[in-house]
Amino acid sequence: MQGKIYLVATPIGNLEDITLRAIKILKEVDIIVAEDTRQTLKLLNHLEISKPMISFHRHSQEERKIEIIEKVKQGKNIALVSDAGTPIISDPGEEIVLKAIEEKIEIIPIPGPCALITGLIASGIDAKEFLFLGFLPLNKKTRKEKLNTIKNAKQTTIIYEAPHKLLQTLKDLQEITKERKIVLARELTKIHEEYITGTAKELADKEKEPKGEFVIIIDKNSEEEQNIFENMNLEEHYKYYENLRL
């Protein structure tokens, strides 16, 4: 009988956020697949759990994915975790899940902490409908496409950002969001948790030396912004899409 893959959400900061079910599964599985085994080991030591671990990250070879799937086919139950939060979301473990589904392996989610939801619910920005874009791409063309998606979004947009890239991202957002409300949710559930609100320009002026991991929550574009786009003439629309291809 083949095993199962459990997608186990882990704390994004405060270790007390681990669920009882997550602890039970981590104790019961045969192997834990982690993005960074050193990071996961800290959590396992805290929970007094000792299990064999396999690393799977963005630079892992195809052979590693096949190795993991083969172990499940041989009857091993595996817990898949990310460094923090809910696996698969902006996480390389997605490749394992896609392959597992292809191989008709049972996938069982173990819900728990998730940075994008945690940041959103305390941001004060409309949470009824939202768009999650993960990390903005580095490639200029695809980055511009994502930024234009944010510019025209009629719902709240959420992105992740690392501290060393925050100022450039705020600069890019300043050009497209103008006076829209933005919240920087920093170091969620940790000692220095903080929510900073302002326009992209105001936030860039405040964050001269960004520290910590960020969830960025961006208010939807206003009716006025939408009208500007909707009222473009044919030539203006052409120029807009021509610039998008550059």
Account of the 3D structure:
- This protein has 246 residues and is of the alpha/beta class.
- It folds into two domains: 5-113, Tetrapyrrole methylase, N-terminal domain (Cobalt-precorrin-4 Transmethylase, domain 1); 116-245, Methyltransferase, Cobalt-precorrin-4 Transmethylase, Domain 2 (2-Layer Sandwich).
- Helix content is 41%, strand content 19%.
- The chain has helices at 20-28, 37-47, 62-73, 94-102, 115-121, 140-152, 166-177, 200-206, 223-230, 234-245, and strands at 5-8, 31-34, 53-55, 78-81, 107-110, 130-135, 156-161, 182-186, 194-198, 214-218.
Summarize the structure.
By secondary structure, the chain is α/β, with parallel strands linked by helices. It contains ten helices and ten strands.
- Mean pLDDT metric: 91
Query: Which value, in Å, is the CA radius of gyration?
Result: 21 Å
> How much of the polypeptide forms β-strand, as a percent range?
15-25%
How many beta strands in the DSSP annotation?
10
What best-fitting shape do the alpha-carbon axes yield? globular
Poorly predicted parts: none
| Oligomer state of the chains in this structure | single chain
Question: Strand order, biggest sheet?
Answer: 3-2-4-1-5
The CATH homologous superfamily of the largest domain is termed Tetrapyrrole methylase, C-terminal domain
Named CATH architecture of the largest domain: 2-Layer Sandwich
